[in-house]
Amino acid sequence: MPHPGPRLTVIDTDPGIDDAIGILLALASRDFEIAGITTVAGNIGIETTTRNAGRLLAFAGREDIPVLQGASAPLSRPGPEPLNLHGRDGIGGVALPHPTQKPGSQDAVEWMEELLLAQPAGAVDVFALGPLTNIARLILEKPDAAKRIGRIIAMGGAVHEHGNVGPRSEFNLWADPEAASAVVASGLPLVLIPLDVTRRVRATREFIAALGASGKPLAAMVGSLIDSYFESAANRESRPLHDPCVMLYALAPELFRIETLRLSVDTGSVEGAGALTIDELGSPVDVALGVDGAAVLDLLARRLTQER
Hints:
It comes from Microvirga flocculans. By secondary structure, this protein is an alpha/beta fold. 35% of the residues lie in helices and 18% in strands. It has twelve helices and nine strands. It has helices at 17-28, 46-60, 108-118, 133-141, 143-146, 171-175, 177-184, 195-198, 205-213, 217-227, 244-251, 293-305, and strands at 7-13, 32-39, 67-69, 124-128, 149-155, 190-193, 256-265, 276-278, 283-291. It is globular and about 50 Å long. The two termini are 19 Å apart.
């Protein structure tokens, strides 16, 4: 069967160590044609997330891909404090070159609108790796463009798992619950990759060593990023590789177990903000609730070490 060709894709992101891993995986995969990277505040502030996107593209030699700066704060509430686990620079202190190109002059949402209106309906996918502020703004402010999205694959939420910023809340949805609610309720094709799956995808030090020994610069860099994502030298496994699961799902959906659930997003108190509830009055969303962790890690390694 002939290869159908790469999917035109926008990566909306707040790099972030695991975001960086996902971005490098996407750049290494011939299945995706990256139209641009749009940035959002989340793991760290907007100036740093935007700079980190440019640094990753400079490292990969892909300065042809534009970076567009997006939302610096949530839709209607104060932004979260930066996450300490990503370090002061957002990417664990891993050495990357300075950006060689300035971010585009357009706002991220305006740029996405132009891209979507210029392409056939359904031709552009969005990989959402951070708070959903930019995507929600597109839906609320540019509905004619938003409805042309092929699908959104978003890392976020916790269904049956305990949250990571509250009893039931995961960081990306908690950081801007109003935006998450707008995206979930939009009716757009949405696949949600929650903590129920991402916590099953963790790398070992042997995995890192194999990436470093491959001779492939992208693989070695991902190894360095994962190495910075261990809680301590004594840990045998890394923290969960949350955001790369978006790209891994797009590459091999058969490795994930998907259920369609009707969901609503809590937009109330700080403690419960962003929590997902299975609700018969909620919106139908395809949710990943299972994963073959070993197989997706093998896929990650193969894609990073193959010839592009």
